């Protein structure tokens, strides 16, 4: 999320392209279309963030910038030339980095939180403890908040470290006890 996604549509034939159309999650609706014979580009049911990466005549790659969670889905590039019609399929999965915090409460419990990530982040502790617990909250937009609690009331450790692992980031936060 927030970065650029480029979906390629390689020309599978040496014959000149007549028409190229990008569709998303449907058969009959289109997002972007280009007709070479009329040098005409059209847009329908498509955000302004979705454009051609290059000239559709030379490389009909689709550019989405910035990517939003709602852009996730299946995309089809349909090309037509004198040899026939060609369909190339792409699937876009959007990954969202979590916001990570490490705090503590008055009852000597460290709280490590990885908020609104997609997929959910993994949380572990150093030192490892069987006195930790975890909660998970699923949000309507597909993101997940994971919260891990580490009790240190009977501990002699000078600090505790929270390790957050996610496809977009690995973070290490240290809390002095």
From TrEMBL:
Transmembrane segments: none annotated. GO terms for molecular function: signaling receptor activity. It comes from the Eukaryota. InterPro entries: CD200R, CD80_C2-set, Ig-like_dom, Ig-like_dom_sf, Ig-like_fold, Ig_V-set. It is a single-pass membrane protein. Its main location: membrane. Residues 1-93 form the Ig-like domain. It is found in: Membrane. Pfam families: C2-set_2, V-set. Keywords: Disulfide bond, Glycoprotein, Membrane, Receptor, Transmembrane, Transmembrane helix. GO terms for biological process: regulation of neuroinflammatory response. SUPFAM superfamilies: Immunoglobulin. One of its GO terms (cellular component) is external side of plasma membrane. Belongs to the CD200R family. This is MOR1A protein. It comes from Chloropsis hardwickii.
């Amino acid at each position: 999320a927030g970065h650029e996604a480029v979906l390629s549509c390689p020309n599978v034939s040496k014959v000149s392209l007549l028409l190229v159309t990008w569709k998303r999650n449907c058969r009959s609706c289109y997002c972007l279309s280009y007709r070479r014979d009329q040098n005409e580009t059209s847009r329908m049911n498509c955000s302004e963030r979705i454009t051609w990466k290059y000239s559709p005549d030379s490389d009909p790659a689709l550019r989405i910038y910035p990517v939003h969670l709602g852009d996730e889905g299946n995309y089809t590039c349909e090309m037509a030339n004198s040899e026939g019609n060609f369909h190339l399929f792409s699937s876009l999965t959007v990954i969202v980095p979590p916001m990570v915090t490490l705090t503590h409460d008055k009852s000597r419990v460290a709280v490590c939180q990885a908020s609104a990530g997609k997929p959910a982040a993994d949380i572990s502790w150093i030192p490892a403890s069987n006195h930790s617990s975890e909660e998970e909250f699923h949000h309507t937009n597909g993101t997940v908040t994971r919260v891990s609690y580490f009790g240190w009331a009977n501990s002699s450790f000078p600090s505790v470290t929270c390790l957050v692992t996610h496809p977009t980031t690995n973070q290490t936060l240290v809390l002095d006890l």
